[in-house]
Amino acid sequence: MDAAVKTAISAVSALHPGLEVLQTAYQYYKHVKYSKAKCKSLLTRAERMLQTISQAMSENRCDSSTSNLERLKRQVILVSLRGQVLIRNTHRNLESVRDLMMIQSKISFLKALLRSDDIDHALEEGRESLDDCFTCFQISAHAIVIQHQDEYEAARCDDALEIKQICLRILDMRNDRAVMEALDVKESQADEAMLAMQRELHQNIKESPERTVIEQGLACLQRSTGKAVPTNTPRWTITIYDINVDLETELGGGGFGVVVRGEWRGLEVAVKRMKSDSTKDLIREVEIWYNLHHDHIVPCYGASITADPPFIVLRYMQHGHLLQCLQSSVNVNRALLLYEVSLGMRYLHDENIIHGDIKAVNVLVDDGGKACLTDFGLSTRYRKGHSSKNTSDIGGTLRYMAPEAIETGRLTFATDVYAFATC
């Protein structure tokens, strides 16, 4: 990061958190291998944006700072209430840029090929969000925006040329191991990689060096592993090449594994990473969950049974589980939350599904404050004349378990209602 720019931004203390975020983004950028020119262009744009805002506030050229008289009295640059809101929004936009750099710093070449359109879209969104900051601060920056557009187009061409050159080098390789190393595919990811490559070849039939590399890579994987492309995969399959996972941001955990934050098709998601020996349980859970569609059921977007570890992709719920929500805010309509949980439970029962583990931590609250049931690992389908699974086999939380469930080892709609009443 340019030292002069850093000094200029430092003049406004309110921008220091944003400056720290940008510096972290630059640290991630050092490890970026692909789309490097576009990433650098985006970071340069963020630098200029912060520098321009800092200068405008220092010179009192935007309505986010206080009057010159007040500034002279206190010998500091003060920020209006509106300015504080704008700075928080700017900080969030910079965090998005930082997160993009983090994702790009960890991406493999195969993933860069398979998700090139998604990467371009994400970087474009990052650029637009930075441009919006000028508008919010009412700063005229037309010349800067035009300059950046020209630089970004040049960066796009540079990255496209680099990708093509890498592809041509791979096509000249005659050793399967060298091809796999160039694509950065690990042996444990072979099934996932073959599935993702086969899907891409079916969806994109246009001839190009990139497509040829994917074809060659798929053939190399089949030869080196002795495996065929997985067939009869569930319709809800999402591979590791379809998502970005932030292993550093753990959202929760339990006996099943851990939940971390991720990104899928531009959506912020929660990725439930299961224990490696729980594939059978995962299939049963997802087969139930994926087909549930209700305002008070957390959406399940899909899962992978071939990844190591296997995982489920869910909607990200901003306010966490019910206990976290109640502890963090006093202005919560508890009666409404309970009512919403009951609506979710009623929907399940109408679909002949017993949840089997209703409790506060299995109720998540979204950004709109809406309560939704989650975690269907112990759920079963009720069929008349057939008892549900025995509780000793499926587990469950004793504190919320109905007396008849403890006594008989069977779960029913009524045992769900009992659990709801005690949560």
Automatic annotation (TrEMBL):
GO molecular function: ATP binding; protein serine/threonine kinase activity
Record-linked CDD domains: MLKL_NTD
Signal peptide bounds: none
The keyword ATP-binding is annotated on this UniProt entry: yes
Transferase recorded as keyword: yes
Keywords: ATP-binding, Kinase, Nucleotide-binding, Serine/threonine-protein kinase, Transferase
Binding locations of ATP: K272
Pfam family, one: PK_Tyr_Ser-Thr
Occurrences of domain Protein kinase (ranges): 245-423
Identification of the protein by name: Kinase-like protein
Organism: Obba rivulosa
Top-level taxonomy: Eukaryota, Fungi, Dikarya, Basidiomycota, Agaricomycotina
